[in-house]
Amino acid sequence: MRSTFGGLEIGKRGLFAQQTALDTTGHNIANANTPGFSRQRVDMVASRPFPYPGMFNSRTAAQMGTGVDVAQITRLRDQFLDRQFRNENRYLGFYESRAATYGKLEVVLQEGTDTQEIGLQKALDRLWGAWQDLTASAESGEVREEVVGYAKGVVDAFGHIAQSLKDYQSDLNQVVLVKTNQVNSIATRIRDVNAQIARIAPHGYTTNDLRDQRDLLLDELSKLVDVQVSDIQNGMIQVKIAGGQTLVDGLTTVPLEATQNPATGFYDVTLGGAPFTPQFGSFQETLEARGVDDGTGKLTGIIPDLLNQFNTLSSVFAGELNALHMNGTNLEDIQSGNLANGRQLPFFISKSWYDSLPNKDLSAVDFTALNPGNYDPVNNPNGYNPSGADDLMVNPLIVADSDLIAAAGRPATGSADGRTAQAIADLKNKVITTGFPNSTTIDGYYSAIIGKLGIDAQGANNLLEVKQSLVTQVENRRQSVSGVSIDDEMTEMIKYQHAYEAAARSITVMDQVLDKIINGMGIVGR
């Protein structure tokens, strides 16, 4: 026999259940614009009916319902879409950084348009033209000064490129440190959320909002590195990155460490004592752009390879021009009558070699007695040819006196002789078989550098567009599951409001029934 007060209990449960649903709907609406928030839903089930089966229970025709219970508050989230989003997000982070890298490099090289008045190609063209002019005007002081001036322009262009690349490389090295700290910070916050969930979940409480916070951190992490997530005890998770290296394991973290490499001067990153090798993500792109140690103390990557190419270009350019200039005759020797055995001077010299001279006086230096190879203070201290793009300078003797430019051949035929100037001007189209990886001209080698950079930049931008589209597509699908629709929530709110009002009305009816029983029954005949 059920209690007379059972109707009140059913109404009370209805009130509480609908109130919970209203509160949850309000929570959804309040967080409609909260990043990472997942829509929540109240799952209601019929409470245990009466009577419950037993040996001495009433044998009524059927069990009577006892109302409603809130089974749980469900967080609407699709883990498959989360994994898909994070997988695509790492590619997006990689190609965003790669496109930014190439954009910066294109600005540094400044060879984008026909109207561009700066850049190495423009400087080289002016220098070749000046040497060609000197061929026909070997006695002209004005043309000789143009040669010196345009040569300084080439030196400045090479120096600007080298210094800009090195500055950008240094900037990226600091970005490596920043991203190392960023990954460690995210790992620490994930660990802290794990700890909060582990304290709450074993008691049967839902931790929807904490899980949303954790998923948002994982989304942020996935743009930096590849992420693998697995569930462990008490609602905690384990996070692995870089192809399976543990970053977070429940209540513990394995921090990334950035230490300066004594050979390269840049940061090496390790995880748990092992080399850190992310698989896509902006972190990998930053490391590849800056360069990583190839195991021999040298960096390999986008900027180091580009620097090596420009070092090769400047060394071959200076070496070829110097070899021709050393075999020519300058105007001073022609005017003094020393046509056969005049002074032999290199047009370009190594800046570091020049700085290493005690008094920086070249007037008495016999360059024919020195090794013309690239200057190396350890292996080739007598080499005077520039060793890199930022080691190039015009011979100070020629800067001080342009008559020392060797425009004539050896022996010279007169002050109008421009054979050496013509040979140097012809370097523009001369195919060089030594020094470059493949036989090509100086301009051709530089054009190949610029061309490859442009192709790589275009490829990175194309892939960036593809990945942006994929990430947007997956995110839209995620939002269709987890996102909050104000219109839908308002509809749900009206539904729960009516159910609440009906439950309250049922309690009022039961109150009237009880009032009749208590105050109106058993008074007949008094």
The ordered H/E elements are: HEEHHHHEEEEEEEHEEHHEHEHHHH
Strand order of the largest sheet: 3-4-5-6
Distance between the termini: 29 Å
Oligomerization state of this entry?
Answer: single chain
The biggest beta sheet reads: 4 strands, antiparallel
* Overall shape: rod-shaped
Low-confidence stretches: 112-116
| Structure annotation, total helices | 13
Helix and strand arrangement:
Elements: H1 6-30, E1 40-46, E2 68-75, H2 79-109, H3 120-136, H4 141-200, H5 208-222, E3 227-231, E4 237-241, E5 245-249, E6 252-253, E7 256-260, E8 267-271, E9 274-275, H6 282-290, E10 292-293, E11 299-300, H7 302-326, H8 331-336, E12 348-350, H9 351-356, E13 392-394, H10 396-400, H11 419-425, H12 442-482, H13 486-520
Structure at a glance:
The protein has 526 residues and is of the alpha+beta class.
Describe this protein's structure.
The chain has helices at residues 6-30, 79-109, 120-136, 141-200, 208-222, 282-290, 302-326, 331-336, 351-356, 396-400, 419-425, 442-482, 486-520, and strands at 40-46, 68-75, 227-231, 237-241, 245-249, 252-253, 256-260, 267-271, 274-275, 292-293, 299-300, 348-350, 392-394. The chain is an alpha+beta fold and 526 residues long. The protein has three domains: 6-78 and 493-520, no CATH class; 83-115 and 176-297, no CATH class; 127-162 and 304-450, no CATH class. The strands form five sheets. The chain has a four-stranded antiparallel beta sheet. Strands 7-8-9 form a three-stranded antiparallel beta sheet, with helices on one face. It has a two-stranded antiparallel sheet with strand order 1-2. Strand 4 (237-241) and strand 5 (245-249) form a beta hairpin. Helix 1 runs antiparallel to helix 13, helix 2 (79-109) packs antiparallel against helix 4 (141-200) and helix 3 runs antiparallel to helix 4. The protein is rod-shaped, with a radius of gyration of 40 Å. Residues 112-116 have low confidence and may be disordered.
